[in-house]
Specification:
The chain is an alpha/beta fold. It has 3 domains: 133 residues, Rossmann fold (3-Layer(aba) Sandwich); 162 residues, 2-Layer Sandwich (Alpha-Beta Plaits); 242 residues, Alpha-Beta Barrel (TIM Barrel), CATH 3.20.20.450. The chain is built from 21 helices and 23 strands. The strands form 5 sheets. An 8-stranded mixed beta barrel has the order 15-16-18-19-20-21-22-23, surrounded by 5 helices. It comes from Oleiphilus messinensis.
Length: 577
């Protein structure tokens, strides 16, 4: 078991496990220990290496005294076996009078020191045992520092990898299975960016305590870095439900609010991927076990990303179909990142017409990926589903900068009216970024573009989030106008629809396109238009694909019309022409 045991101080009784098949030798060494340490030691004797392992799995000892002439593991075999299972255990070997060279070989393999039968003296026993314990204590402390996460006190990535590659071959020998739980905290980046790194660190420490309380003593818990954690769980065929139970316990424990100071609290959430390791699978060299470890990690990671597709805390077991799907998504993400670096993105603009003036009044920006391998794609919805917030924000900032610059050029060329605007569909992840308002202000200032020329389109459901309301106020203070996109397909906060925080409602195309032929769509659309007019909001109807539909929606009272009838998305040059 590749774990670090805390050693008692040398002033406290030293605990010793003596592995010796001779009762006389056990009594003999006990006499010497009493001479040297008095009552300041405890001795447990076993008669074989196999028995020693069973004891060591249950209890930590300061020192193991190991005879090298045991019936079940003669010579250096017993030492090698113990070091594989307990690499941090202090071991002093005991050799026969004619086996001094064997003792030296044992030290080279990893034993702390050796004693020779028949050559015991009080000074020798005291020196060897004390030095062995002290050297191992220092080595253990250094190893612990190397394998411990300083923020949470959990094992770190190095400790996790070391334990995993050790426990897999052990599971095969001891006939138990392994489950790896890969855990990613939901929305941690938003917490960190919004509330600060100090609160983020406090949140991680609190989460770590919750994880510890949700697992068994035999489970191995590590923080890989950032907001990623792993559990390694041992179970046999009679307890196959253990991985699921642990995952459910973790999710349930996170339902309780976590206090972060000043009377504030956060409700935690996480996504858990679970990969199982059958002890009957795998064998070979150390390199083979390293590959098995990496394979298990990749499977758990794949399952975790699938769990992230579900809103709220959830878990997902790995399977091959999910793996294939995840591989495709990862390839898509890599392609998007490369496309950004290689300049394969292009902005297109769809006209928005004013029904009263019968002329172009605005444009909506749409990004397209001109991929050499995949053709022309709209990556927006797929990118939001994949959840790469860093890439979403990076591309969103690029769209804001480029579209505002283009609109400034249109104004300078007299191609847009003074009351015209450019409309951007902004993702929830980008909208919740605390730096968004400052970013927009800087872009508008650089392009000398008045704020009324920019409108942001938001998903209806985002008004249900408290963090979004704060962002909404900041943007309104700057002077940015806000439109609710796909209105009628989600849930909105009536409280904020009734205020000046929202300027416009965009009726979803699913209602508009069925307006002429479906009574239910007609009544729903009329109700939404009347509702918006009552609140003093301008109304946009999207999905207009015919002259008859344009006339009907204009007569109904829609202020602005958008759709293929007025023009499909076109390049900046085409719009200018």
């Amino acid at each position: 078991m590749d774990q670090l045991c805390e050693l008692d101080e040398l002033d406290n009784p030293i605990s010793i496990l003596y592995v010796e098949d001779s009762t006389d030798d056990i009594l003999f060494i006990e006499i010497y220990l009493k001479k040297v340490f008095g009552a300041q030691f405890t001795l447990v004797a076993v008669h074989s290496v196999g028995e020693a392992k069973r004891v060591l799995y249950q209890k930590c000892f300061d020192l193991v005294l190991l005879d090298l002439s045991l019936p079940d593991a003669g010579g250096l075999m017993g030492l090698q076996s113990l070091l594989v299972s307990f690499p941090y255990q202090a071991i002093v070997v005991i050799t026969g009078m004619d086996d001094v060279r064997l003792g030296l070989q044992a030290v080279k393999l990893g034993a702390q020191d050796y004693l020779t039968k028949g050559h015991y003296t009080s000074d020798t026993v005291l020196r060897v045992i004390r030095y062995a314990v002290e050297r191992n204590r220092i080595a253990t402390q250094l190893m612990k520092m190397a394998h411990q996460d300083p923020l949470t006190g959990l094992h770190n990535r190095s400790g996790f990898m070391n334990h995993l590659k050790t426990i897999l071959p052990q599971s095969q020998r001891r006939n138990y299975n392994i489950a790896l739980l890969y855990i990613d905290l939901d929305n941690f980046k938003i917490i960190n960016d919004t509330l600060g790194h100090e609160v983020g660190d406090h949140y991680l420490r609190s989460i770590s305590k919750i994880f510890k309380a949700s697992t068994r003593a035999s489970d191995f818990l590590a923080r890989l870095g950032g907001d990623e954690f792993t559990f390694i769980i041992q179970f046999d065929e009679h307890n196959s439900e253990e991985p699921l139970t642990v995952a459910q316990n973790v999710i349930k424990a996170l339902e309780h609010p976590i206090k972060i100071g000043d009377g504030q609290s956060i409700r935690g959430a996480c996504s858990i991927g679970i990969a199982l390791w059958d002890h009957s699978v795998g064998s070979g060299t150390a390199a083979d076990w390293q590959n098995h470890s990496l394979e298990l990690i990749n499977r758990a990671d794949t399952a975790m990303y699938q769990a992230k597709q579900v809103n709220g805390s959830s878990y997902q077991f790995y399977d091959e179909a999910l793996a294939h799907k995840a591989t495709e998504k990862q390839a898509f993400l890599r392609g998007l990142r490369n496309a950004q670096q290689q300049g394969e993105f292009q902005l297109f603009y769809q006209p928005i017409y004013c029904s009263r003036k019968s002329k172009l009044i605005a444009t909506e920006v749409m990004m397209r990926w001109l991929s050499q391998e995949r053709g022309t794609l709209d990556p927006g919805s797929a990118l939001n589903q994949l959840g790469d917030h860093e890439l979403i924000i990076s591309l969103g900032n690029w769209i804001i900068y480029e579209s505002c610059g283009q609109f400034r050029r249109w104004l300078d060329d007299g191609l847009m009216e003074p009351e015209s605007w450019v409309s951007l569909d902004i993702s929830p992840a980008h909208f919740l970024n605390p730096a968004l308002a400052d970013q927009i202000y800087k872009v508008l200032h650089e392009h000398q573009l008045p704020t009324h020329h920019l409108r942001l389109e938001l998903a209806e459901s985002i008004l249900m989030k408290e963090a979004a309301i704060k962002q909404l106020r900041q943007l309104k203070e700057v002077g940015i106008s806000i439109a609710i996109d796909h209105f009628g397909t989600g849930y909105s906060s009536m409280r904020y629809l009734k205020t000046n925080a929202v300027d416009s409602l965009i009726i979803d195309r699913s209602y508009v396109q069925n307006y002429l032929h479906n009574r239910e769509s007609q009544s729903s659309t009329r109700a939404m238009v009347r509702f918006g007019q009552t609140l003093g909001k301008s109304i946009v109807a999207e999905g207009i694909d015919s002259e008859a539909l344009a006339a009907a929606l204009s007569e109904l009272g829609c202020d602005y019309l958008q759709g293929a009838y007025f023009g499909t998305p076109a390049s900046a040059e085409q719009i200018g022409n």
